[in-house]
């Protein structure tokens, strides 16, 4: 970021250690989703030429960065975490005004980022191989991990700080260099990340930033012959397209995509306790989370009590500009996301679901993309609102006559990211853990992930090694097996 003019942030690309405009000097504006009359940032609408320059810069830097001792690479990440912590207030405010989430959630994202980066910094010292016995005399066998080369990191707008660092940090720890393409509507946060790495002393060319559309920049980066790994978080449709393109070059991908996560409530006497876990998991970040709980599957005997408790808890939310005190739900990120949410609510009503609460825009003094947290009951498993990812503040409730039916409904979906089950029945717990078709299983709690545990999913939610934790190195390194004859 170069400067601020009348509180508008001027964003540039970062290539080879230099902040530069796009080669065509074209830009676009990003509005504040909580106050659309305010322009937050002006960012470059970059070209294929810019993408190529970024990859070449990263490729050149890889020749030296890959030889930097792993412990030293980790120290750069520790320093980044220190710089982020020192600038926490400024970064949180930027996150809120650009993305829309309440300030308390922005601070939570920052704290999670710091924890994950510190864990990953330590992983640089744990890139271990193994020693194996040989079938032959006088032969030693060992494995080592080596960096891939240039990694392309494509990140979404819903968590524009922590998600990029889940890609950048392990890539750097393993000795790779990075070309980072953030979502266009959160480009200022993308630039802030690079700025913080610059302050941490990261060498030139090791991390490069290119801002632009998927059509002009993204596709060029995905297909560049010097890009040796692609890590992407976003929609399943875009992820599938990236997978197809990468497969033609036999390039490994790590894709984290959509979710339609269910919470089963069955044989669980503490209904209020379950609801206190489910509602934040449903409506944090205005429901714009791949791990949001968006379906609740309840025993027929308890559905009335559960719906009433969900309604009561949901109506406690205070909607508004997240930069203000006491706001518990901010706006949706864009006009497009608002329209998508509205259209699904209309579909739910047409399908015959019962609207319990919400279901309309929240009209406030500031013009923004505000929408009320919404609950539908009497939803059938075949309904679109029970099948498709809405990515907005909409929660649907379904009923089941048995736990077996509840588990079937849970799995009757193309996604498989996270699933939660509230039950005191040990047999149900075992059946859920073994039978739920999701990568992350939660018993008697919401869908919170932790900073040192693998993060990933099944089916159409993910492909490739899980990120974070001990599994990240499986994507960001190549394995070599060495046969050494004495």
Topology of this structure?
Blueprint (H helix, E strand, L loop, with lengths): L2 E3 L2 E3 L2 E3 L2 E3 L6 E6 L2 E10 L3 H18 L4 H17 L1 H12 L3 H21 L7 E2 L6 E9 L2 E5 L7 H12 L3 E5 L5 H13 L7 E3 L4 H9 L4 E7 L2 H13 L3 E5 L4 E5 L5 H13 L9 E7 L3 H12 L20 H16 L3 E4 L16 E4 L6 H4 L6 E7 L2 H9 L3 E2 L1 E5 L3 H10 L4 E4 L14 E2 L2 E2 L9 H4 E9 L1
Parallel strand pairs: 2-6, 9-10, 9-12, 10-11, 12-13, 14-15, 14-20, 15-18, 17-18, 20-21
Antiparallel strand pairs: 1-2, 3-4, 5-6, 7-8, 8-24, 13-23, 16-17, 19-22
Question: Mind explaining what this structure looks like?
Answer:
This protein has helices at residues 48-65, 70-86, 88-99, 103-123, 162-173, 187-199, 214-222, 236-248, 271-283, 303-314, 335-350, 384-387, 403-411, 426-435, 473-476; strands at residues 3-5, 8-10, 13-15, 18-20, 27-32, 35-44, 131-132, 139-147, 150-154, 177-181, 207-209, 227-233, 252-256, 261-265, 293-299, 354-357, 374-377, 394-400, 415-416, 418-422, 440-443, 458-459, 462-463, 477-485. It is of the alpha/beta class. The chain folds into two domains: 3-257 and 461-485, Aldehyde Dehydrogenase, Chain A, domain 1 (3-Layer(aba) Sandwich), CATH 3.40.605; 261-452, Aldehyde Dehydrogenase, Chain A, domain 2, CATH 3.40.309. It has a seven-stranded mixed beta sheet with strand order 16-17-18-15-14-20-21, sandwiched between helices. 54% of the residues are buried.
